[in-house]
Design brief:
Strand order of the largest sheet: 1-2
Strand content: under 5%
Radius of gyration: 21 Å
Oligomer: single chain
């Protein structure tokens, strides 16, 4: 069945999108800048045993706040909610740069994560409203370039800033970029206003249950095998709280009038849960690579903070190349399933080869293996997002994009927590010199071996994707017919909604 006719987006959409992506770049840059600066931060503040919490606190706060920001955008003004998240992120960056202990840094990173949840949820929701999925391939080069700039530029900026100005500027550097983003979005972003709801109802019960559930899951993953044994009563209790909390959350969401994560976005079409599963797997690899590759390069391969950023280029440049190729093919043909299938296969191969690294691994060999991971991320990340966006109505775009970012971030958070457990067990706190190098290499191998298992599971999910026509009308709130259990790729058709692309 042919896809709906394409209605081109407004002529100034590139300028508008550039402002939105500039704001989203803040979060992308920050995580990778901090990853490169972490060895220097640890040397200054101490607390190697808490290194994973610098990332975990950020990711946990992002995961908890993402659906809240997304739902607020659906209920109120997407633009104003998005700008508020940028402001929170900038304030937290200022505080993190002034931290005088690892505990303070972790607290301010959590506040940064709250702001980052709005950057991700609001940014992708705005893109979903401004550009329909079939046309999104034309702009995917912009998205991929900004994403790659964040992932590539983060380590580069982090290395340069840390080496010449000190690690505190790894956070202060967000301020000028954030101020420009605030002004740009305020001036350039124009969305049709809608009459506000008389009394929008906030799902406070859902927020509370989701916070407890995510917190329990991340704490269990972080402490298991390091602070406490995997079979200790504390870990088992946290696991039970996470499982029970998930069940309670589902029950709450089915009953409240304005659910935080509407069940209909998960049950409307099976491509949506498959898409968020793929994004969660990519989040695991992305977070793990950003944290542990610079640590391996600096500790085992003897790279400086500056050069370790450059050494990540073999992984980041392929992200841009693969995303552009996939976007152009998708816009021209409307076909997209092949890309997450190929991407997850490359991710599995890349993480498996990275799991073979030791103290004798050359930078050239490591660069070749990182290139496989970069190609896999490029083919998978944007396509999985488009897959999810094409599976929901416009009225749920904010909540749906919040859900995709929630699971990507939660996947990354849980992945880094488990990676931290595996890494810490392999690296004794008293190790120094050559034994320390060998221990770091061993810990890194364990990290990427676990990542390979996640990527292999994602490959299975990619095979289950149903390739339905991408909606093409600008602002069309299409959602595919339910294909759950059908296993057919030629039946579902896009159902066009009459809902306008309002500023929701």
């Amino acid at each position: 069945m042919t896809a709906p006719p394409v209605t081109p987006p407004p002529g100034n959409v590139r300028w508008t999108l550039l402002g939105v992506m500039l704001a989203m770049l803040l979060g992308m840059l920050d995580n990778n800048i901090v990853g490169t600066a972490m060895p220097t931060i640890v040397r200054d503040l101490g607390g190697l045993e808490h290194i994973s919490w610098v990332v975990t606190a950020y990711a946990l706060a992002t995961a908890v706040s993402t659906p809240v920001w997304g739902k607020l955008g659906d209920l109120y003004s997407r633009k104003r909610v998005f700008l508020a998240s940028v402001a929170v992120f900038l304030l937290a960056s200022l505080l993190a740069g002034a931290a005088h202990s690892m505990a303070q840094l972790i607290e301010f990173r959590a506040l940064q994560g709250i702001g980052a949840g709005g950057l991700a949820a609001g940014g992708f929701a705005l893109i979903g409203v401004l550009v329909p999925p079939r046309e999104r391939g034309r702009y995917q080069g912009m998205t991929a370039s900004v994403m790659a700039l964040g992932v590539v530029g983060g380590p580069l900026v982090g290395g340069l800033v840390t080496g010449h100005l000190g690690w505190r500027w790894a956070f202060y550097v967000n301020l000028p970029l954030g101020i420009v983003a605030l002004a740009w979005v305020q001036l350039m972003l124009r969305l049709p206003e809608r009459a506000p709801q008389a009394r929008p109802r906030i799902d406070w019960a859902g927020i509370a249950v989701l916070t407890v559930t995510i917190g329990a899951a991340v704490l269990a993953a972080t402490w298991a095998g390091t602070t406490y044994a995997w079979t200790s009563w504390r870990i088992l209790a946290l696991g039970a709280v996470a499982v029970l909390g998930a069940a309670v959350f589902v029950a709450v969401e089915r009953r409240v009038p304005e659910p935080l994560l509407p069940p209909r976005v998960f049950t409307g079409h099976r491509n949506f849960p498959l898409g968020i599963g793929l994004l969660a797997a990519v989040g695991v690899v992305m977070f793990g690579s950003a944290l542990y590759l610079p640590l391996f390069q600096q500790t085992v391969q003897g790279a400086t903070a500056t050069s370790s950023g450059l050494l990540l280029l073999p992984m980041m440049i392929p992200v841009v190349i693969a995303s552009n190729i996939a976007g152009k093919v998708m816009s021209r043909t409307g076909r997209y399933k092949v890309f997450p299938v190929l991407g997850t296969l490359l991710l599995t191969a890349g993480t498996l080869t990275l799991a073979t690294m030791d103290t004798g691994t050359s930078r050239l060999a490591a660069g070749c293996w990182m290139a496989l991971v970069g190609l896999g991320m490029g083919f998978t990340l944007q396509m999985a997002t488009t897959l999810a966006q094409n599976s929901v109505e416009l009225r749920d775009m904010g909540a749906a994009m919040a859900a995709t970012n929630l699971f990507r971030t939660l996947g990354g958070s849980l992945g880094v927590a488990v990676f931290g457990s595996l890494f810490t067990r392999a690296v004794p706190a008293t190790a120094t010199g050559e034994p320390y190098r060998h221990a770091v290499a061993t810990g890194t191998r364990h990290v990427f071996l676990a990542g390979a298992g996640v990527c292999a599971a994602a490959f299975v999910l990619a095979l289950l994707v149903i390739e339905v026509p991408l909606r093409g009308g600008a602002g069309a709130g299409a959602r595919p017919e339910s294909g759950r259990g059908s296993g057919k790729t030629d039946q579902p058709a896009a159902r066009l909604s009459t809902e306008p692309p309002a500023d929701r």
